[in-house]
Amino acid sequence: MSLRARSVLVLVIGTVLGLSLSFGGGVLAERGGPETDETLPWEEARLLAEVLQRVKRDYVEQVDDHDLIEAAIRGMVADLDPHSAFLDSDEYEEIRISTTGNYTGVGLEVSLEEAEDGQSKQVRVIAPIDDTPADRAGIRSGDAIISIDGMPVDPENLGDTVNRMRGESGTQVRIAIMRSGVAEPLSFTLTRDHVLVRSVKHEMLEPGYGYIRITHFSETTARDLDEALAVLQRQSEDGLRGLILDLRNNPGGVLDSAVDVSDAFLDEGTIVTADGRVSEARFSMEAKAGDALRGEDLVVLVNSGSASASEIVAGALQDNHRALLVGSATYGKGSVQTVMPLSQGRAIKLTTSKYYTPSGTSIHERGIVPDIRIENDDMDAAQIAQLPELEGHQGLAKDYELRAALQALQDKRIAHIPTGADRQ
After folding, report:
1. Could you tell me which CATH number the domain at 103-196 has?
2. pLDDT per residue over 112-150, tens digit each?
3. CATH T-level fold of 200-336+353-423
4. Global confidence as pTM
5. Residues known to be catalytic
6. Which of 13, 212, 283, 394 lies at a CB distance of 3.0 to 4.6 Å from 252, suitable for a disulfide?
7. Structural domain spans, the chain
8. Cα(216)–Cα(305) distance, rounded to whole angstroms?
9. Is the distance from CB of 187 to CB of 137 less than 8 angstroms?
10. What percentage of residues in the chain have a pLDDT greater than 70?
11. What is the spatial distance between Cα 75 and Cα 159, in angstroms, rounded to a whole number?
12. Whether the Cβ atoms of residue 195 and residue 105 lie closer than 8 Å to each other
């Protein structure tokens, strides 16, 4: 069955890395009733009511009813597995933002990092998003945000900082930053606007060899991938001879996008299968004819931060003998979560399926082992010295895994990808 026909938000997310980009999703709508007519166990429900009443009456401090019940719900869902969760309206909105890849704000990617004194934390700019208010104003990567609208930021509450920079399009926000080498704080008054978060970055490594990085899987990822491939093809006078697809530290996201990215490089074959208790949680996704690289060599870079949707792509391309995997073993998350809307803008994120690579393998808590395994600690100077210089590649000249991947392309090692049996 097609996942696009499902009336829920389906996602495959691994480790939480970064800001709102850690989340992903699919179609937002209501889910129908359950397949079985299981009644609520009233004896257990009465026990829950009794505990809530005892806490409300006898706990040393007064507890708000709303907070108490929400905590009970959070605990119930969280106890199922590490990936299921109750989402309040703000948390649900974060998922919606990353699902669609757009929001209204100033266009900054931020994280908590160690301050220069080494004793405290700062909210630091990872990068301004291209063609956004922050980018046009001149805010730079590495700037530390110290206040928003005159109020200091709380380095212990990154979410609060992010929420204060967001708002309705056309409204203004004043951001003060500290910049390395500048003694006094710099102040920027920005007008919020619609921000498009792109999950795909690309550039040429050497003539004929392209590089594409996917940071997460959102609704726009497959379209962004097509555009990136078209640009790289135009930049190659004789066409692309090989491509490196970088999925390192990609925590996952939209299941449909992972399937579409896999399909972009496959002419045929199974991409992923899944099994669950209800019929809509059981499915098999097959590739359609048409390889965007027309059979040219493909290397996929992975590491322990490549999770869930990233592992679906890596597993599909490896099991179908379409790509060589280079790097370190992946995270190992082989389950699918469905986000089910509730009342008042809330939702639950519930594990509904276990998924399997085309060979029928579950990678849960095992991960995917690359064809060429690289542990940076084990790389000696002789190996590094033999790798090519990437003079034109911005910021990754010392990226040993990337350089090894490029050498694998240039050595035509793709033609000798081992079969699944050979890799055991």
Report:
1. 2.30.42.10
2. 887 777 777 889 888 788 789 999 999 998 899 999 999
3. 2-enoyl-CoA Hydratase; Chain A, domain 1 (3.90.226)
4. 0.78
5. 308, 319, 333
6. 13
7. 3-33+45-100, 103-196, 200-336+353-423
8. 11
9. no
10. 82
11. 21
12. yes
